[in-house]
């Protein structure tokens, strides 16, 4: 029932979702929803920093405008993003950090450096095929001991909640339940640990592990 309601409300609010995406893409420096709300809270940043192994060389995959770059050592950081406007803003705000646009060779020169992949609220913007393609690329290019730290929003459990509404209007089209995320990740990642964390009005899935080698 809740899945049907979610789809119905996504359809109803599609113009709002489309408009928010348009503003975010074309007026990035003025409007960045990914830097607003719960993820902008200090305790969220502290949680991330606490879970990053010290001295790791981090790939911030889907880094957006580089909002969380400041949590990492600028000499051991690579932020990757498909949106050129996001990368432009990230470079202006975090001039000491490396940022690249996602292309066929975005890891060139970093293959033997990166030992941790940080993916924060990114994968629900991708189809399952795009996720598989992304992880296959990691598997081909990076060391098999490369760690992975993933945070993804969970599908709401009830219709009568602010969380339901907030996830209805999320720009990402593929928010999943814990079971669906885990079933997907098990095919791509050696999962060491996973748990659910409450973040303000919603819940996210935290997954830690390492990439599987082809």
Can you offer a commentary on this structure?
The protein contains seven helices and seven strands, in the order H-H-H-E-E-H-E-E-H-E-H-H-E-E. By secondary structure, the chain is an alpha/beta fold. The protein has one domain: Vaccinia Virus protein VP39 (Rossmann fold, 3-Layer(aba) Sandwich). Strands 3-2-1-4-5-7-6 form a seven-stranded mixed β-sheet, with helices on both faces. The mean pLDDT is 89.
Layout of SSEs?
Elements lengths: L1 H11 L1 H13 L15 H9 L7 E4 L15 E5 L2 H10 L4 E4 L14 E5 L7 H14 L5 E7 L8 H7 L9 H8 L3 E11 L2 E10 L3
Classified in CATH, the superfamily is Vaccinia Virus protein VP39
Q: Calculate Rg over CA atoms.
A: 17 Å
Terminal-residue CA separation: 39 Å
Order of helices and strands: HHHEEHEEHEHHEE
Largest sheet: 7 strands, mixed
What is the strand arrangement across the widest sheet?
Answer: 3-2-1-4-5-7-6
Give a count of the beta strands, DSSP E runs of length 2 or more.
7
Here the CATH topology equals Rossmann fold
Beta-strand residue percentage: 15-25%
Q: Percent of residues in helical segments?
A: 25-40%
Which keywords apply here?
alpha/beta; Rossmann fold; 7 helices; 34% helix; 21% strand
In short:
By secondary structure, the chain is α/β, with parallel strands linked by helices. The chain has helices spanning 2-12, 14-26, 42-50, 84-93, 128-141, 162-168, 178-185, and strands spanning 58-61, 77-81, 98-101, 116-120, 147-153, 189-199, 202-211.
């Amino acid at each position: 029932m809740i899945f049907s309601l979610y789809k119905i409300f996504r359809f109803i609010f599609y113009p709002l979702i489309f408009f928010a995406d348009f503003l975010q893409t074309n007026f990035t420096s003025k409007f960045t929803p990914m830097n607003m709300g719960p993820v902008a809270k200090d305790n969220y940043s502290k949680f991330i920093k606490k879970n990053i192994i010290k001295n790791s060389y981090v790939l911030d995959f889907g880094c957006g405008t580089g909002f969380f770059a400041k949590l990492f050592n600028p000499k051991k950081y690579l932020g990757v993003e498909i949106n050129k406007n996001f990368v432009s803003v990230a470079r202006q705000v975090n001039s000491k950090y490396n940022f690249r646009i996602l292309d066929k060779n975005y890891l060139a020169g970093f293959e033997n450096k990166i030992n941790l992949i940080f993916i924060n609220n990114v994968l629900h913007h991708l189809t399952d095929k795009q996720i598989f393609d992304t992880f296959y690329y990691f598997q081909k290019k990076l060391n098999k001991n490369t760690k992975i730290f993933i945070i993804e929003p969970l599908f709401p459990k009830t219709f009568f909640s602010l969380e339901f509404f907030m996830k209805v209007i999320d720009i990402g089209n593929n928010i999943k339940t814990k079971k669906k995320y885990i079933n997907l990740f098990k095919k791509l990642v050696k999962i060491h640990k996973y748990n659910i964390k409450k973040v303000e009005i919603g819940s996210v899935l935290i997954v830690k592990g390492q990439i599987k080698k082809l």
